Amino acid sequence: EISHSDEWSVRVSFLESYSEAKTTASKFEGMISPLSIAIFQSLFAFHKANDVTGDLIEFGVFRGKSASVLLRNLNSGETAYLVDVVGCPDFARPDAISGQYEFIKGKGNTFSVSDAFAKSVPASFRLSHHDGSHRFNNVIAEMTFMETRLAPRGIVILDDFLNPAYMQVVAASFNYLATRSSGLEFLPYSNNKAYLCHKEDFDFYSRFIIEKLLSDINSAEFDCMLARSDNHPVYRAFSLYPKNRPGLPDFYGTDFLGDKYYRLG
User: Fold this and answer.
1) Of 215, 230, 227, 229, nearest to 252 (Cα)?
2) Could you tell me which of 93, 86, 195, 215 has the C-alpha nearest to residue 150?
3) pLDDT digit string (tens) for 46-100?
4) Residue among 127, 129, 138, 128 nearest 169 (CA)
5) Which residues make Cβ contacts (< 8 Å) with residue 181, sequence separation at least 6?
6) pLDDT digits over 127-166, tens only?
7) Cα separation of 183 and 154, whole Å?
8) What is the DSSP letter of 251?
């Protein structure tokens, strides 16, 4: 049983890690938002607490802003593989965070169907972040590759999901899940990023989302709510987003639907 003092210690630890990650990321150009940084940090803390380990990979690095968050969350013996068609302009900056990375120059969608690339990276990853080309076929190619390389309890993160300029990311990801007999499914959506996991890990992460993620986020600088208004076997994911006015419940629909979509077990 976790005591109140232990809970406070964990909360303070999250706030410190979030603040440090945000400060580090601010030194890099890029588009990852403070809310996404907070979600990443909460997720990495959950991995650490549950001994989820493994390498990380990012497709589409740009100037390294989101990569900086990945690098600072590497455990001993882990490696971050950073894939981009443009070479990193200043390796001293990521080096200052961690030297545990390999930069691979090239297109993610090309590498994802390359035997040479497959042999050069590990057999499994605990997290992949996809922020390179968002063309329909490229999303399919990267998801196909990652499903064969995703470790148990691993997470796939698709960037620019529901971005009006890149709606093909939505179309491609649903197409992939519907036509490939995929073992992946959506977990939460938040802030233009969709998070997916193995189907058998959905309950493991649902507990994290309901019991930890929202409280972590709202202990920082955010006032978000969690939403799930169905629990269909094909789609049972959550959404996490800022409240549009003060005073709304933390869990959408509990005032008129009850808590049936947020019960565990």
Assistant:
1) 227
2) 195
3) 999 999 999 999 999 988 999 999 999 999 999 999 998 876 657 888 999 999 9
4) 138
5) none
6) 999 998 899 999 999 999 999 999 999 999 999 999 999 9
7) 12
8) B
Task: Name 240's Cβ contacts closer than 8 Å, sequence gap at least 6.
Answer: 39, 188, 189, 190, 191, 209, 213, 214, 217, 224, 225, 226, 227
Copy the structure tokens of residue 187.
């977990």
This prediction's pTM: 0.92
pLDDT at 90: 72
Look over the chain and give the mean of its residue pLDDT values, rounded to a whole number.
Answer: 90
Per-residue CA distances from 148 to 220, 234, 264 (Å): 35, 21, 29
What the chain holds in terms of domains, given with CATH numbers, is 4-220 (3.40.50.150)
Question: Identity (one letter) of the amino acid at 228?
Answer: R
In angstroms, the Cα distances linking 73 to 7, 169, 190, 261 are 21, 27, 20, 32
Residue 191 region, left (φ>0) first, then alpha (ψ -120 to 50), else beta?
left
Sequence letter at residue 119: K
